[in-house]
Amino acid sequence: MSQKLEVLTYIQKRKGITSMQAFVDLGITRLASRVYELRGDGHLILDYWIRVKDRAGREVKVKRYVLQPKGKK
Fold first, then answer.
1. Mean per-residue pLDDT for 24-32?
2. At 68, phi and psi to the nearest 5?
3. Parallel, antiparallel, or unpaired for β 45-53 and 17-18?
4. CA angle 45, 35, 30 (to 5 degrees)
5. Which helix (H) or strand (E) is 21 found in, with range?
6. Which pLDDT tens digit goes with each residue over 3-14?
7. What per-residue confidence (pLDDT) applies to 73?
8. What does the H/E/C string look like for the chain?
9. Bridge partners (DSSP) listed for residue 27
10. How large is the average pLDDT for residues 14-41?
11. In angstroms, rounded to a whole number, what is the distance separating the alpha carbons of residues 70 and 67?
């Protein structure tokens, strides 16, 4: 399975993905590139910033990618 398809399947099943999830769960280090390719293929993928804690306990912002709900533009 291609990385692009792995990311799409993950987003569909888990309702979103962050770069850390892509790395830990899928071994993908360039999530933004795969999302760019998926968008180029016509998939409506939204992104927004979320706050998470890093390993030192500090709050940091990361991007989360989700599929746009059907019927909305």
1. 97
2. -70, 135
3. unpaired
4. 150
5. helix 19-21
6. 999 999 999 999
7. 58
8. CCHHHHHHHHHHHHCCEEHHHHHHHHCCCCHHHHHHHHHHCCCCEEEEEEEEECCCCCEEEEEEEEECCCCCC
9. none
10. 96
11. 9
Indicate the residue type of 53: K
Q: What is the mean pLDDT of the chain?
A: 94
Whole-model pTM: value is: 0.87
> Which phi and psi (to 5°) does residue 18 adopt?
-115, 170
**Which pairs from 26-31 meet CB under 8 Å and 24+ separation?**
28/3, 31/7, 31/65
pLDDT band, residue 72 (cuts 50/70/90): low
**Domains of the chain, first to last:** 3-67 (1.10.10)
Cα 8 from chain centre:
8
CA 57 to CA 20: how far, in whole Å? 16
